[in-house]
Design brief:
Layout: E1 5-9, H1 22-34, E2 39-42, H2 54-68, E3 74-77, H3 83-96, E4 100-104, H4 113-127, E5 131-135, H5 137-140, H6 146-152, E6 158-163, H7 168-177, E7 182-185, H8 191-196, E8 201-203, H9 211-223, H10 227-244, H11 249-259, H12 276-299
Parallel strand pairs: 1-2, 1-8, 2-3, 3-4, 4-5, 5-6, 6-7, 7-8
Helix pairs in contact: 1-2, 2-3, 3-4, 4-6, 9-10, 10-12, 11-12
Length: about 300
């Protein structure tokens, strides 16, 4: 499995009654295909998986595959507290014909490195699909450390990691110690540094609503090796990244999609939408990003 490019962790639109809006979901995925991102992730944090019932998650997996067919690689998040549940979602991904799964540390449980390795290996054994690990200790409470990698080194299906620790030293060590493991940027304001260290993949929520700008940064740095242009694009995107990390991440992603005319239907509790001032600020930031990235393209 090749994870090169921009992989979008898609939002999950809701209907007026709070159920998943399947038509709007199909429109969202079609929009991303037309926007020329390189892959889709379903069941990620941006998709509000934690607020979905198990049967909703399974149905969404099958729906996503039915919509995408084979137009783009489909990666399914298996995040769950219990290993049994993660296995269930991984098996559902396999049955639906997904291309890969994303496996994270079970949140709240605080497993040891060996217990975390056992969790990942159990999910792998059940699914038999390519795996992108997901290291996000701010959400899970436990980081994937050296002892973990030693314990899973014989697993052939582990081929990538979305590194979302925010610890630049982890990026350095991963690139140095695990050259065969494809690194995907999972901390948006470090994308330039990830690309400089050889990463060719970026799982980025902002590509739900400004995919062209994210693709532009990837193409400049990875495909062309033009880090002068890359720095200009990254600099233009930083205000957006700062806003997204200000405390209302999913809320902001969904409103960004609304600005593109996409239906989102709000959020599931406990999250609530942006207020009018936040909406206006975000709209201005997005427009500035588009203008500045377009200017950088002209100057290249």
């Amino acid at each position: 499995m090749n994870f090169d490019g921009i992989f979008t962790p898609a939002i999950t639109p809701l209907a007026a009654d709070g159920s998943i809006d399947q038509c709007a979901f199909a429109e969202m995925l079609d929009y991303l295909v037309q926007s020329k991102v390189h892959g889709i992730v379903i069941g990620g944090s941006t998709g509000e998986y934690y607020a979905h019932a198990p049967e909703e998650r399974v149905a969404l997996i099958a729906l996503a595959k039915d919509i995408l067919k084979d137009q783009l690689p489909l990666v399914i998040g298996t995040g769950a507290i219990r290993t049994e549940d993660a296995i269930h979602y991984a098996q559902s991904a396999r049955r639906a014909g997904a291309d890969a799964i994303m496996v994270s540390c079970p949140p709240y449980a605080l497993p040891t490195q060996q217990e975390l390795a056992d969790h990942v290996l159990a999910v792998d054994q059940a699914a038999g699909l390519p795996i992108m690990l997901y290291n996000y200790p701010a959400r899970t409470g436990v980081a994937m450390q050296d002892a973990f990698f030693e314990a899973v080194q014989g697993c052939a299906n582990i081929c990538a990691i979305k590194e979302s620790s925010g610890d630049m030293n982890r990026l350095h060590r991963l690139a140095h110690s695990h050259p065969d493991l494809q690194i995907s940027c999972g901390w948006d304001d470090q994308a330039l540094e990830f690309f400089a260290w050889g990463a060719r993949s970026w799982v980025c929520a902002g590509s739900n609503f400004i995919p062209a700008e994210h693709v532009a940064l990837y193409e400049a740095c990875v495909l062309k090796g033009d880090f002068v242009k890359g720095r200009k694009i990254m600099s233009a995107m930083l205000p957006l990244m700062d806003f997204l990390e200000s405390g209302k991440f999913v809320q902001s992603i969904k409103y960004g999609c609304e600005l593109n005319g996409l239906k989102t239907g709000g959020l599931r509790a406990p999250l609530k939408g942006l207020n009018s001032e936040e909406k206006a600020t975000l709209a201005d930031i997005i427009q500035n990003v588009k203008n500045q990235v377009a200017q950088a393209a002209k100057e290249a």
